[in-house]
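Entry under discussion copied across for reference:
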Amino acid sequence: KMPISAIFISNRRGDPIVIKFYKSDIGTHISDLFRMRVILSPENQKSPVITTEKTNFVYTKLKGIYYVAASTGNVDVILCLEILYKLLDALNCYFKKLDENSLYLNFPLVLEILDEMLDDGIPQITDIHALTNIITFGIPRKEKKKRKEQNVIEEIGSIPWRASGIKYKKNEIYVDVIESLSYIVSAQGDLISAHVNGIMRLKSNLSGVPICRIVLNDEVSLQFHRSMGIDVPETEGVEIEDVTIHQAVNLNYYTTDRILRFVPPDGTFNLMTYRKNNIEHLPFNIITNVLEVSPMKTEIHLELFTDCNPNTVAEKVNITIPVHPSTANCKTSVKGFGKAKYKPDIGCVLWKIKRMFLGDNHKLVIYVEMLPMNNDERWVRTPISIDFIIPGESTTGFSVASFSVEARDGSKYKAQKWIKYRTKAGSVQVRY
């Protein structure tokens, strides 16, 4: 892969704050070229990638400050963006407030971070834990002393994401499987599209250097373990795609044994993300019927129903129903749970239900009185949106088949394990 020639940081005027050159194939005027071609040309700011005068710029902007990677070759754009985001993570770790002034005052620290992150334009160390172990400039004296006492600054490379000397009175690890469900329903009640973006988030409060093993119930993993004679739940596997896993996971074990084997970072981290398309069973749907009582009066009848286990509980169900922009007065009548109120500032009726069983059906009638308007004006109805949380539920059926924690030397390790599932609304739209 082509290396990055330089990384620099500029303010909103285009003045360079910090420049780090990795290769000699790029001129010292690089920040001036970026200012002229990007900052002073708003039409070029529509894309984070700009090529001009045989130079490729990949950049991101935060609080008026530009973070830019430059190269003269065919550099990997995604890699450049990832490096810039890792740089932002590192700077936020060292600075209480990341702004132009703090960057000017601490430019030696920024240069040191850039020097450690890349070697000759090739990414080297990007993990936050590893960087803070190497670079102690800017860290409070108490923290430096504490690290020396715990011998944290030691060999980097074996497990750079986990420091040594971690101790807890009670060893616990929490696993949260959070699925974000997005779908669109047509005005006729037909499902147009539906997908789930899932994330497995862990919070590790484990002492020492433990090793975790997780077997998932995705279809490929279950079929593999059954073929090997390994005892796994007799359930149908779940098809998932677009899987990404944390760098702590041993890829050799995952590709050969379909096991997530890893030494967890301390604290909260995302172990994996995934996606599933073609979702069939929706937790909520709405049947609407709009009645034009008169030219200035309209009634909107809504029925909220579900297609899930009737014993499942949903919380914080918020339904937003846009009404006609010429609405002068609006009244609501709820038959079931929740409260509905017209919000004139946003031109919508908000129907809020704190808690409900998915087996229940609820109805809402909205009585709309409108101002006199031109008959040629046509009401373009904005879709209804639904927000909700379903604790203890996995829409895809994705789950942890088995979970164990052991010491690095193979001995027994006592740890309390907690696994929770939750489904929440992503972008849910019901047209009417």
Remarks:
- The chain has a mean pLDDT of 85.
